């Protein structure tokens, strides 16, 4: 292989480029990214950056030593097609880049609220999104956040800190219940009201009110809720449309890969938020839209691409964290609705605890609030459910 | 020098966090690695996690948030996401008590 293109210039793309060099690949590495910028870190966009505690420079993911990677950056133009037979990537500008291998790392984008676009309505995925949202929050007024998931909750928390009046509206009667289960979902969503943010759950937003600029959101049942700014936090969609017709297996859930990031096409691998991958820990295919996966999965994908033994295919539990209202939430493992949950350290009321999820007695997932050290201890005792099933 | 406490206040394989006051004022984490005391800045250089909450294995601590590993003797990160070393500080055990001599500057760690 003489040239490899990494499509997507963010966390997973940079990790893939680094992994290529770490494994001694000395050919050309071309990184294609549709954003104008070098890779930056997204988690702070809803936290420290939105709060104004850190600046753009602090988000940079590249370091001085990355200059030694000798990467060929193509920024500001998206890849528009993959021609597997012709061994080339076609950019939206029409330019064709010939390559012998491809790493797909195009991530995901925020799911938009259906309907016409109104001023004052935001999603949060990119640095530009965060800058635009921050400007509007600083102008003051009432913020309505649609969706009480992690991003929605983080935005609500940061906006509250900036002195904004915040209401969070969630369609699900049990916010975060799908991820954490009803008890722990409730423990997390209680943080909103503890901090003076109104939470309306079990009520879908059916539309936006306003002609040019948003004035409110309409709720099921006909009531509306006034708003000067709206943030839509209703999930993310993998950036896979450009692969249509390429022959690479994918659907709305992402690019299909095995545990090592290999797709159905030799010499094409994928990593990060754009993938729907077999997770050896859980024993099923998943899309993991989390930072740690985006930094770890590329190493495996690059090993697959270079025909090396794939070290990362051994079961490691999915992991994510979230920071809201000064609380640090951490989750590792894979939870199913029937898993039994118990508090293993502390208690819910203290807002400092560790909870464990058990399946047939085995600890398959842990969740902690404000207990990083104990979380680290329990996380190491997780039993991969896929293996537990065999025993 | 800052008083940490008695040696038994820091059990083997564990760490305590102390407020450094004066100087930089940054908190410091003091680790007990098989009876040897090692001190580094408590705050991970990646973001804001406390390394005293991290997992210690041999002579390294793994950050509890994003798993960057730091060498407790040199302060060097072994890889991403941390890019810069944490400062190391000298530990003095005298008269049955553990003290930390706070390093002057960030350069002192490099
Ligand atoms: C606001 C926010 C807060 C978050 N907080 C947390 C958190 O607290 N904890 C946690 O675990 N995770 C968090 N995440 C998730 C984490 O940031 C993602 O999992 C991670 O960024 C995924 O990296 P990626 O490189 O796979 O994808 P992305 O970061 O989405 O990057 C993909 C890149 O590819 C580009 N691209 C897309 N299509 C094309 C194309 N056709 N051609 C070229 N380039 C293209 C995109 O513009 C983008 O630059 C957060 C995410 C956001 C947005
Ligand atoms: S805060 Fe320590 S690795 Fe990120």
Automatic annotation (TrEMBL), chain A:
Gene Ontology CC: one annotated term: cytoplasm
Co-factor(s): FAD
Keywords: FAD, Flavoprotein, Oxidoreductase
Residue ranges of every copy of the Reductase C-terminal domain listed in the record: 319-381
Domain FAD/NAD(P)-binding: 3-297
Pfam families xrefs: Pyr_redox_2, Reductase_C
GO molecular function list: oxidoreductase activity, acting on NAD(P)H
Protein name: NADPH-dependent 2,4-dienoyl-CoA reductase/sulfur reductase-like enzyme
TrEMBL record, chain B:
InterPro entries referenced in this protein's UniProt entry, alphabetically: Rieske_2Fe-2S, Rieske_2Fe-2S_sf
Keyword Ion transport: no
Domain Rieske per the UniProt entry, residue ranges: 2-100
Keyword Oxidoreductase: yes
GO MF term set: 2 iron, 2 sulfur cluster binding; dioxygenase activity; metal ion binding; monooxygenase activity; oxidoreductase activity, acting on paired donors, with incorporation or reduction of molecular oxygen
Organism superkingdom: Bacteria
UniProt keywords, alphabetically: 2Fe-2S, Dioxygenase, Iron, Iron-sulfur, Metal-binding, Oxidoreductase
PANTHER family: 3-PHENYLPROPIONATE_CINNAMIC ACID DIOXYGENASE FERREDOXIN SUBUNIT, FERREDOXIN-RELATED
Name of the protein this chain belongs to: 3-phenylpropionate/trans-cinnamate dioxygenase ferredoxin subunit
Organism: Pseudonocardia cypriaca
């Amino acid at each position: 292989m003489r040239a490899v293109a990494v499509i997507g210039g963010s966390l997973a793309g940079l990790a893939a480029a680094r992994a290529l060099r770490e494994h001694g690949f000395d050919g050309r590495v071309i990184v294609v990214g549709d954003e104008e910028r070098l890779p930056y870190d997204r988690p702070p966009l809803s936290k420290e950056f939105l709060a104004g505690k850190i600046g753009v420079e602090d988000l940079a993911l590249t370091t001085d030593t990355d200059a030694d990677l000798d990467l060929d950056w193509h920024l500001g133009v998206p890849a528009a097609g993959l021609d597997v037979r012709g061994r080339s990537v076609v950019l939206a500008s029409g330019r064709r880049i010939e390559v012998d291998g491809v790493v797909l790392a195009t991530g995901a984008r925020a799911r938009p609220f259906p309907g016409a676009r109104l001023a004052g309505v935001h999603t949060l995925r990119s640095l530009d999104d965060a800058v635009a949202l921050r400007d509007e929050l600083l102008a003051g007024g009432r913020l309505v956040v649609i969706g009480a998931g992690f991003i929605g909750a983080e935005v609500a928390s940061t906006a509250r800190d900036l002195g904004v009046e915040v209401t969070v509206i969630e369609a699900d009667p049990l916010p975060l219940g799908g991820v954490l289960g009803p008890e722990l979902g409730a423990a997390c969503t209680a943080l909103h009201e503890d901090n003076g943010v109104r939470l309306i759950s079990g009520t879908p937003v059916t539309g936006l009110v306003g002609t040019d600029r948003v004035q409110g959101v309409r709720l099921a049942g006909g009531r509306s809720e006034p708003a000067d700014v709206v943030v839509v936090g209703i999930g993310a969609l993998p950036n896979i449309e450009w692969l249509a017709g390429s022959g690479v297996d994918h659907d709305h859930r992402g690019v299909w890969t095995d545990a090592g990031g290999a797709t159905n096409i030799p010499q094409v691998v994928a990593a990060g938020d754009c993938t729907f991958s077999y997770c050896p820990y859980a024993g099923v295919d998943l899309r993991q839209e989390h930072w740690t996966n985006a930094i770890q999965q590329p190493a495996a994908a690059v090993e697959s691409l270079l025909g090396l033994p794939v070290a990362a295919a051994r079961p490691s539990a999915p992991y994510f964290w979230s920071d809201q209202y000064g609380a640090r939430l951490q989750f590792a493992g894979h939870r199913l609705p029937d898993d039994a949950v118990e508090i293993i350290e502390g208690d819910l009321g203290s807002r400092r605890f560790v909870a464990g999820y058990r399946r047939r007695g085995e600890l398959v997932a842990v969740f902690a609030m404000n207990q990083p050290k104990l979380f680290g201890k329990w996380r190491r005792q997780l039993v991969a459910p896929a293996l537990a099933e065999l025993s | 020098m800052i008083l940490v406490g008695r040696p038994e206040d820091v059990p083997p394989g564990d760490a305590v966090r102390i407020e450094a006051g004066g100087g930089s004022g940054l908190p410091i984490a003091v680790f007990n690695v098989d009876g040897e005391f090692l001190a580094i800045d408590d705050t991970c250089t990646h973001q804001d996690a406390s390394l005293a909450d991290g997992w210690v294995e041999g002579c390294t601590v793994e950050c509890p948030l994003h798993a960057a590993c730091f060498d407790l003797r040199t302060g060097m990160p072994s890889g991403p996401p941390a890019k810069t070393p944490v400062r190391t500080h000298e530990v003095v055990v005298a008269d049955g008590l553990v003290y930390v001599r706070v390093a002057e500057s960030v350069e002192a760690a490099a």
